[in-house]
Amino acid sequence: MPELPENEAQRLTLERTCLNRTVEAAELGDNITHIDLPGDNELGRLKGRQFTETRRHGKNIFLGSKTGPWITVHLGMSGWLIPYDLPESEPDHTKFRIVFEGDRRLAFRCPRKLGHVKVIEDPDAYIAAKKLGPDALSIERNTFVDFLGGSKAAIKSALMDQNRIAGIGNLWSDEILFQTGLDPARKGSDLKADRLDTVFDAMLTTLSKGVVVEADYSRLPDDWLIPNRKSKSDCPRAGCEGKLTHRKVGGRTAYYCPAHQS
DNA sequence: GTGATTGTTAGTAA
DNA sequence: ATTACTAACAATCA
Q1: Cis peptide before A123 (omega within 30 of 0)
Q2: How many angstroms is C1' of C13 away from CA of A79?
Q3: Which CATH topology does A141-256 take?
Q4: Is the minimum distance from the CB of A162 to strand B below 7 Å?
Q5: Is nucleic acid strand C under 7 Å from A77's C-beta?
Q6: Radius of gyration of chain A (CA)
Q7: DSSP class per residue in A94-115
Q8: Residue-level pLDDT at A34
Q9: Which of A30, A52, A87, A97 is deepest in the core (most CB within 10 A)?
Q10: How do residues A120-155 score in pLDDT, each as one tens digit?
Q11: Residue A262: per-residue pLDDT
């Protein structure tokens, strides 16, 4: 579930539940093969610390303090951070947990094991080392338009290029293109400047709305794609008579409406 | 059984 | 050097 809006919702969850509490232990869950988690050394460093701030860049979440160290979490395809209080029980597929003083716990549930948790010194250095582009909600219009206008890849793939724009994945790229009326396979380099501007505007309004509703799709407008993202259903856009369909674009399944996206 | 999945990355090719 | 594309990763579900 994790693209920019989902990760921002998760960051808010951490902000609300995990700050200013002493870490009693950081532990690995069961069945941790094939997943990138902190070793004994890093786990030991977290003990006794308190987290005082959260950050997010693209699909990366950070939890830490001025003096470090920080924890960074990537949710992969199926990861989720779940705070709970004893005697509530821990979720299935917990790969990593933080035990705070008292009853509060934070579980990293990751059934498909494509996510990771790392202990790092500094979020900015980590973002630079990963060569992530600017966050999609902070990128300058000119930077965005220059990149997209020069891209010969499918526009859907370009929007999902984390090294150029951080935070957009398969679902939200579909939504942005649905709003913009563009076929997901169009090339950015074929678009005029005013069209590129509308993509930028749609990206901001779409992702911002996703953040406002904390990625709860039932609270998105009824005429958006994501709450209706099924093939053969009627296009939800007002006045559009088309039917939604899907096809592979850039190796991912793109949902779109051929009637108003071209 | 087949094929799909809201992500990243190593390898390959142009 | 840069950009674009594919397969692979792992587990689960339709």
Answers
A1: no
A2: 16
A3: Helicase, Ruva Protein; domain 3 (1.10.8)
A4: yes
A5: yes
A6: 20
A7: EEEEEEESSSEEEEEE-TT---
A8: 84
A9: A97
A10: 999 999 999 999 999 999 999 999 999 999 999 999
A11: 95
